[in-house]
Amino acid sequence: MALLMFINQFLRDIKSQKLRTFLTLFGIIWGTTAVTLLLAFGEGLHAQISKASHGLGDKIVIMWPGRTSKPFQGLSKGRVIRFKEEDAFLLQKEIIQMGQISPEYNEWSVQVKYKKNVFSQNVTGVYPVFADMRNMIPEEGGRFINALDIKNKKRVVFLGDKLKNDLFKEEAALGKYVFINSTPFLVVGVMNEKKQDSNYSGRDAYKAVIPATTLSAMFGRRYLDNMVFKPRDPKQNEYVKEKVFEVLGKKYRFDPEDKEALMMWDTTEMDKFFNYFFYGMRVFLGILGAFTLIVGGIGVSNIMNVVIEERTREIGIKMAVGAKRIFILSQFVFETLLITFIGGAVGFLISWGILSIFPMFKLEQYVGTPTFSASVAILATLILGLIGFFAGFFPARRAASLNPIQALRL
Question: At which of 266, 286, 303 does a domain end?
Answer without folding.
Answer: 266
